[in-house]
Amino acid sequence: MPRHRGRVAVKVMIHAGVVALLYIAFSFALFLGLQVRPLYGDICLGVTAVLAAAYVYFGFIRRR
Description:
This protein is mostly helical.
């Protein structure tokens, strides 16, 4: 049973890390769009959306 808890804890930590990285990517896209150039922000928002879709697909939909 402790081995299963450890595996669950690692998965939760990985998911939390990915969500934090997605938040940072989204914040950086907003920074680029508002402070640098709107085109760069639009491009980064698109990249962030693709990363979020990949996270949902590989993290939840496609199971081993």
